[in-house]
Amino acid sequence: MDEPVIKTDKLTKRFGEFIAANELTFSVFPGEIFGFLGANGAGKTTAMRMLCGLSIPSSGTASIAGFDVYKQVEKIKQNIGYMSQKFSLYEDLTVMENIKFYAGVYGLSDKEIKDSSEELIKQLGLQKETKKLVKDLPLGWRQKLSFSVALVHKPKIIFLDEPTGGVDPVTRRQFWNLIYAASAKGITVFVTTHYMDEAEYCSRVSIMVDGYIKALDTPANLKKQFSVDTIDKVFFELARNAKRTGD
Amino acid sequence: MGAINLDKITKTYAKSGSPAVDNISFDVSKGELFGLIGPDGAGKTSIFRILTTLLLSDSGTASVDGHDVVKDYEIIRKIVGYMPGRFSLYQDLTVEENLNFFATLFGGTVKDNYDLIKDIYVQIEPFKKRMAGKLSGGMKQKLALSCALIHKPSVLFLDEPTTGVDAVSRKDFWEMLNRLKNQGITIMVSTPYMDEASLCDRIALIQSGKILIIDTPDQIRKAYPDKLYVIKSVNMHQLINDLNEYPHTLSCFPFGEYLHVSFKIDEENLIPDVLKYLASKGHENPEIKLTFPTVEDYFIKLINPK
Q1: Nearest CA to CA, how far is A77 from chain B (Å)?
Q2: Per the CB < 8 Å rule, is B253 touching A173?
Q3: Which homologous superfamily is A6-88+156-168+180-239 in?
Q4: B236/A246 Cβ within 8 A
């Protein structure tokens, strides 16, 4: 098997007495679609922030794309992409300006920016929309664009934080086609969602409750383990006794 | 007279051109739990704001409990409860202060209607001295609902109360709604989650400012025009691609661990032919069986151009 692209060992984050993420130990492999589930307040956001190099752990170790979460946070940021439904593109910039901005932030050369923006526009079929402001694009297109922009610097891992919130059921499924395509190219996809049917599309799923990873396996094995027929029911079994209800 | 009536309501925001609400008419009966189901940008929030007298429509008429939303706006504001999609309580007041404030605004006290909110409020009462801005998402949601209920409204408007809320808390929230409904309160609730549609008495599926269909969730499922199959094989991504290339496929979408697939033809030898085709593409022993459509299947059918 390949070397893991995300590897954590007893990764922990404390805020005073409060242990937001408690001894998380897991590995994610190249090209995997890894579903990171949990109730509100379970510690998902805290864990994601550590994995993205945005928050220094209290204890434990983790390596992301081969870089250490304590010492090499800038390297980590250069080698991952991030997209969330809440924030990803600048609405007052045009499609092309957004692509160039992000490519520039990630330090691509002028030639690389030119090539990759042209390629991206073509892939998305947005040739006629390059001068449109992002806020004038339909939500579905905006989402596809922000996903592609998050991949513009060819990262090894992309973190998706509730990428499909609020979109219609067809767009939501088209978005998963993009995820599959990225995974087929060897990009690791780390995704959070509240749609339990989407958990079924993942290679493996972890479920966090009260700061701990309570379950981690393929969707099929989790259902077998809990003797239920949907991931929704697995989630309900694990999360209904959660003590924390925060965000 | 229904609890809510809309008659040819249209609203266009100056610049964007196409209407946010496009000639919409429907009625909600007293005591009904009515769902507006649709994605962001469908026009759900505009409808809520028109009915709660916070936004004027360009044309059409609407009433709440028999009161006109334009002429009788002062009456309507007294008899409705409104929980907007964005948290709108006072962040720098405590839980208790927010609740007292809203009760006083409507000329009452928390005690007057405490029975109505008791089930919900006891869950946040341990934190009553905490600033509302410091509450977790789930607790904010419960406080906002308590504040919207404290004057015992006859109609309750809830704009996406469960968005971004985890699956377990969403179930709890819908149980709360059903208890309120049993106390005779009319509830209009919006959600982007199709699985919540089945928990409403009736639903309107809405997209781009237009109502696609209004009926009970069961009737909507029964109205699905095609035979619908679930199909599964080891390599699901490959299966999607292969079925999309199969000439008789009408639609094919992933639904959890299965694909939901309908075909253009309905012949005796259809299934054997599908199996033969899938075998030729290297799928070993794919599972295929008929299934009963969900509300989400119907929504996809209505908005998918194919």
Answers
A1: 26
A2: yes
A3: P-loop containing nucleotide triphosphate hydrolases (3.40.50.300)
A4: no
